[in-house]
Amino acid sequence: MTDHPQLYRDRPVVVGAGLAGLMTALSLAPEPVVLLSHAPLGAETSTGWAQGGLAASLADDDTPSLHLDDTLAAGAGLVDAAAARAILEAAPEAVRRLAALGVVFDRNGEGFQLGLEAAHGRRRIVHAHGDATGREIVRALAAAVRATPSIAVLEGVEARRLIVEDGAVAGIVCVGPNGEAMTIPTARVVLATGGIGGLFCDSTNPRGSQGQGLALAARAGALLANLEFVQFHPTALDTAARPMALVSEAVRGEGAVLIDETGERFLRHLPGAELAPRDEVARGIWQHLVAGHRVYLDARHQPGAGFARRFPGIDRLCRDAGFDPALQPLPVRPAQHYHMGGIAVDGQGRSSVAGLWACGEVACTGLHGANRLASNSLAEAAVCAAWVADSVGNAPATSRLLAGAPVAAKVADLRTGDAEQTRPILSRALGLVRDRAALEVAVAQLLPLATSARPAAGPALVGLMLAVSALNRQESRGAHWRADFPSSRSEAVPSLLSLDQTLAIAREVALSLCFAESA
């Protein structure tokens, strides 16, 4: 960060360099834009780890309406149908735009090669290099960004605080690789920071994905939505490695089945069996594990000998762990994988704070509802990035922050998050099955961390908001399953939460527990 921040004054700032961030920056061209990447461009993003593909109705026997039907069914009543329809109608063109930007998707003689994943009624998943879709997307888009003169890429730079003046974004405070702080005066910030997997002990996400964008937005006063809905992927490779290696749903789409140590297909009774919605498959596996069984993904017959050809990346992961997928069943278990909740945004990605947008996993557009349909997330990020860029490009550009304002000096001591204390708390209370007692304990444990000045404060704050949201939703719906409220309410209602509301509820919970213990 050797450039003076005033050089970037009034430019839009995009925080995050996965699919959502890269596409937003590219879609803003030729307007000058600043792209912040906490790691070298293209590294340490959830996008880069994505084995699955993009869901889009590209086949002759498919339509956006059929895609919407599957999305609504998986979302358990909480999908915003209008928002979902708009996104899914735009998904095929977004795939074509990615291809035009250099993403090399798998093709056959008829066009894109389309795969099948759970709860999809048609083959509509576009992949790259079999199971390396995310890596290929990041490769191509990072190259396109570097070739675009209007995009200033700041690598090794973390966003630490949004500056809000009179209810609107006025700047962003960043810290560089050497610990130096700087403030960029800007009236337009796009958060594309990814998910929350780093807040859980068992996750398929990069360890550094700790909900940083959620903390930035909450501290700026933005509303967050549906935070309680955390998706657990059914088939993470059950080894000691953390983060856990993912075995893509596409493997089941090609015929692999789930068995236990006796060889029984114990989920055969589910409608769709292994290709039922993710929340149902994950809970079914979890319940079987709790009952004392082992669970395996058996790909010996399908895809069988063709496994390495169809899924070369997963084959390498398995072999590195000592398994041959063509010859051995793979031990699997559920692991945190995706966050359906996020910053509440409208159809243009605008948050409740003027000048703040969100895109990708950090945003809650209404597409995923209570349970994300497989491979809808990459499609959502690609589609919404263009809409966000259009909105940003038409928004007021002048920051209210005066040149030379001593903001950086006030926040230069802010340090990056440390989730070590948060992980075990969230993993115990916000797993596949939840209940009031565990959630209240989590709230009481997280509150002092979240309100401290320690490095643990950021991750703990995000964890606290998740726990309060889960405590507030007294029903079971989609990925949110309450053992003490096992039924769903007749009406599906989205949840909205601010930081002030979170802290007020958390203090009441902590106080009630304190009284209960002293009684």
Short summary of the structure?
This protein is an alpha/beta fold.
Describe what this molecule looks like in 3D:
There is one protein chain. The chain has 519 residues and is an alpha/beta fold. The chain is built from 16 helices and 21 strands. The protein folds into three domains: 5-196 and 340-407, FAD/NAD(P)-binding domain (3-Layer(bba) Sandwich), CATH 3.50.50; 233-335, Flavocytochrome C3, Chain A, domain 1 (Alpha-Beta Complex); 417-518, Fumarate reductase/succinate dehydrogenase flavoprotein-like, C-terminal domain (Methane Monooxygenase Hydroxylase, Chain G, domain 1). The chain has helices spanning 19-28, 46-49, 64-74, 81-100, 133-146, 212-219, 249-253, 278-290, 307-310, 312-320, 376-393, 407-411, 422-429, 436-450, 457-472, 499-518; strands spanning 13-15, 33-37, 54-55, 107-108, 111-112, 114-115, 125-126, 151-155, 158-165, 168-175, 181-185, 189-191, 224-225, 230-237, 257-260, 295-298, 330-339, 342-344, 356-358, 363-364, 496-497. The strands form six sheets. A five-stranded parallel β-sheet has the order 8-2-1-12-19, with helices on one face. A four-stranded mixed β-sheet has the order 20-18-13-21. The protein has a four-stranded antiparallel β-sheet with strand order 14-17-16-15, with helices on one face. The chain is globular, with a radius of gyration of 22 Å. 57% of the residues are buried. Mean pLDDT is 94; it is low at 408-414.
